[in-house]
Amino acid sequence: MTGTVAPILRRYAIEKLADHFAQVRRCCALLSAEQIWFRPNDNSNSVANLLLHLAGNVRQWIVGGLGGAIVPRDRPAEFARRDGLSREQLLESLAGVLDEAYAVLGGVDDAALVREYAIQNYRLSGVAAILHVVEHFAFHTGQIVTTTKWLLDVDLSLYDEKGHRRDGRQEAVP
After folding, report:
1. For a 10 Å CB count at each end of the chain, is N or C smaller?
2. CB neighbours (10 Å) of residue 139?
3. Which of 170, 71, 62, 61 is nearest to 106 (CA)?
4. Region of residue 120 (left: phi > 0; alpha: psi -120 to 50; beta: else)
5. Are 134 and 54 a contacting pair, CB within 8 Å?
6. Residue 67 carries which DSSP code?
7. In the prediction, which pLDDT does 25 show?
8. Is residue 10 within 8 Å of 172, Cβ to Cβ?
9. pLDDT given for residue 55 in this prediction
10. 112, 37 in Cβ contact below 8 A?
11. 113 Cβ contact list (under 8 Å, min separation 6)
């Protein structure tokens, strides 16, 4: 392999975030306005809360942390909200944050990957921040998929019985 690590990591991170967001959109398109805000109990989050939380996390860690933008965040409010925003508003907000994050990630170089950042009371490298966001987004995407399956009894698998993607897309391989 020749070149630097940064282009490989940023391409993979952007592809994974876009792939997860496509799955989130797919689920949200199936859910009603009531189902988006449904909570089975007070210790669980609605899909809407997870969308607010993902937007806050990506904004804080990538746009603010790596990108240097000032990003106010009220993390507890992401989980406390019970209604008031439509599916379209929630998805549009998250899409906008992801676009900002893609722009920041597109400019990441090797120096930014090893630089230390202070994000959400942590001190960590650019690599760690990027990996955290991709992992965190994947985790909550899984929760959204599971919630959608529970509410609607639908098969949302991206893969067939042989483990191949149903949409024909090849997995990104760095």
Report:
1. N
2. 12
3. 62
4. left
5. no
6. T
7. 97
8. no
9. 98
10. no
11. 5, 6, 9, 125, 126, 127, 130
Helix 6-30 crosses helix 87-106 at what angle (to 10 degrees)?
Answer: 170
Question: Token digits for 140?
Answer: 């909550």
pTM of the model: 0.91
pLDDT per position as a tens digit, 17-71 = 999 999 999 999 999 999 999 999 999 999 999 999 999 999 999 999 999 999 9
**Which residue do the tokens 């995407």 mark?**
141
Question: Helices in the chain by DSSP H: which ranges?
Answer: 6-30, 33-36, 47-58, 75-80, 87-106, 110-114, 126-152
Residue with token string 């805000």: 37
The two three-digit tokens of residue 109, written as one number: 């170089």
Q: What is the mean pLDDT of residues 68-85?
A: 94
- Is residue 71 within 8 A of residue 109, CB to CB? The reply is no
Q: Report the candidate in 158, 133, 161, 156 with the shortest Cα–Cα distance to residue 144.
A: 156
